[in-house]
Design goal:
Two copies of one chain form a homodimer.
Chain A lengths: L7 E4 L1 H17 L3 E2 L9 H9 L5 E3 L2 H9 L4 E7 L5 H10 L1 E6 L5 H6 L5 E7 L13 H12 L4 E9 L9 H23 L6 E5 L1 H6 L8 E2 L9 H5 L10 E11 L4 E5 L2 H4 L4 E3 L2 E3 L1 E6 L4 E2 L7 E4 L3 E5 L2 H6 L5 E6 L2 H7 L4 E3 L1
Parallel strand pairs in A: 1-19, 2-9, 3-4, 4-5, 5-6, 6-7, 7-8, 8-9
Antiparallel strand pairs in A: 1-10, 10-11, 10-18, 11-17, 12-13, 14-15, 14-18, 16-17
């Protein structure tokens, strides 16, 4: 890792491959489409590992990511974010070449939008299954029907089904809460699907979020899964007991730039613009990442956890245990498991290091 | 603003120019060097506005920024971040062409470092004046002396003075707390300077942070000021009563992608990777930005404040007042004063829109 000069995301291939394989096999066992969300890594290399596993359909969260992966040879891409009307020209450009699908989430001016469509586009209706972020409520059948009728007026738009993301599972108190909650939500989505299947025979339910896709063994009642974070996992997932330390495939490498013996703290080059300001609470205080030590072929977790306790734009402050403090020198690289790997990967894009 | 398709930073030139002029005049009045910190904007255009005001020296917080501004014709650049030993080759490359100065903040392996220096480099000693981030304590005269003796062994390193950043002023409870605290700190820095002036006759005290540089009328006891955030200000500075609404020069333009009448909320394309996850507390809850409405030549603040109440990677959720909710359509742009403009500008680099 001598080549690493500035904060970088170190990605451990063997763990990534294992995470991909596990999820792909689970998908096959449940006979669902596995459409991984690529916003977590945004990497050609990691994308290739998915391709090697036989994956052909992906989800992204912006048109710039869609453009990036289309340029990389992917040709079935869902932009899993409420469609941004201002990017209609990008949509028209992409839909000329690849199968791009979009999300409609509520109150888009449909006739105005469809008039500007140049090519056929698949769309999904976003359903809010409890995270209160966006989408129609599963009970809003009349509202959804009205919207579908408007969409029907233009033969360029093809309704493909319902998309749900249980964002609130990330805040689940316990892993055992997830399965009963999943079953309850799926029942509602099934009711929706059954109702609309009368008019649209081949619609599907697309389901996404790493906590449920990791915890559940089978995906009864859905047709597609779209987890993203599982490819790397992170401190948030570890804390929530969704993954084990050995499942984490990405760590930020941060150069040590100063150390202070009086407070047993080190300062690293690795701050808010690298790790993000996302945090978890440990001992009643926010922490922005957890320390690991790089080894020849990966990293190891110290016996007692140490955390990034404060960050500013470029600085990270780490409180060290005494033994570890004295073994670290200014100029060394320290590893940090990011709280939220999707954000760290976005910030460090272009600065990935594969081992 | 029809050209804006994706989240962008809208920069109001007249306010920027005014902020720059006010600070430059204040500096001239106090007869101090004005070395603005360019990490806030990282923009060629804004840099030019400083140049037009007669500014020749700047500070940045990374070597990549130093490289960027060196390529833009700046030739006196301080990298105001503890020197990262891993970037010695970048330092050597830059110091060939321009006057680059660095910070030493504590426990760098000096002989090892200086051996690799190819050109003369000015350095400052970072002093921790209370933010407990990095630097020597002002009382640590012996430690500093030891370090300077080591640096002396290599004639390529030239000691220029002390650098302080009162990061804790950003958390000052009241504006009136700042001046007495400043005076107390400056006394300590003066003691340091007086002591070391015997051996190093032309050393200076370089002082930076937007709160104190904005609030104080005169900069007694320092030789240089390095504020950065003042060029844009932001919600954090507004909340701390450091600036007025009319001083804020940057707002994030976020496309509205969905709206929900039952909860009077809109969803915008503008999330953690655009605004950052920095927050302030309003009514006991974290908020990630404040709503403004774009006008022909800028933006206006609504009568009652509205905030971004939740963000994820790409989404922002804004709770609207009823009247404003109904006047906003999906496809519109909404303005958001970011909590921390330096982070928003870093995330939106390359997507600036000047008005």
């Amino acid at each position: 890792m001598k080549k690493i000069k500035t904060p970088a995301l170190v990605i451990k291939k063997s763990i990534c491959l294992n995470n991909i394989k596990t999820m792909a096999e689970k998908g096959r066992k449940s006979n669902v489409i596995f459409r991984p969300h690529f916003k977590t890594h945004q990497s050609t290399q990691v994308g290739q590992w998915f391709k090697d596993e036989g994956i052909e359909k992906i989800a992204v969260s912006s048109f710039s990511m869609a453009q990036f992966f289309a340029d990389n040879g992917w040709n079935d891409i869902m932009v899993a974010f409420p469609f941004n009307l201002r990017e209609i020209s990008t949509l028209n450009k992409l839909s000329e070449k690849i199968n791009i699908s979009i999300l409609l989430a509520g109150n888009e001016p449909l006739p105005l939008f469809t008039k500007k469509l140049k090519n056929k586009v698949d769309f999904y209706v976003k359903i809010d299954v409890g995270s209160k972020r966006c989408g129609y409520k599963p009970e809003s059948i009349i509202e959804i029907e009205k919207m579908l009728d408007l969409a029907e007026m233009n033969d360029k738009l093809k309704f493909k089904g319902f998309v749900a993301h249980a964002g609130h599972f990330y805040q689940a108190k316990s892993v055992s809460d997830i399965e009963p909650l999943y079953n309850k939500i799926i029942k509602k989505l099934q009711t929706l699907k059954n109702y609309f299947s009368k008019s649209y025979s081949d619609i599907i339910i697309s389901w996404g979020d790493t906590p449920s896709c990791t915890v559940l063994d089978k995906f009864d009642g859905v047709d597609e899964i779209r987890p993203g974070n599982f490819v790397f996992y992170d401190l948030m997932q570890l804390k929530a007991k969704i993954c084990n330390p050995d499942d984490i495939a990405a760590a930020v490498a941060a150069p040590v730039v100063a150390k202070y013996v009086n407070r047993h703290e080190i300062v690293v080059y690795g701050g808010a613009i690298h790790l993000s300001k996302d945090y978890i609470i440990e001992n009643k205080r926010p922490v922005y990442g957890m320390v690991v030590f790089f080894t020849k072929d990966g990293w190891k977790f110290p016996e007692k956890p140490m955390y990034v306790k404060k960050i500013s734009q470029e600085h990270g402050i780490i409180k060290m245990k005494p033994d570890e403090f004295f073994s670290i020198e200014v100029g060394d690289l320290i590893g940090i498991i990011p709280v939220h790997s999707c954000l760290a990967a976005t910030h460090l894009k272009g600065n990935f290091y594969y081992i």
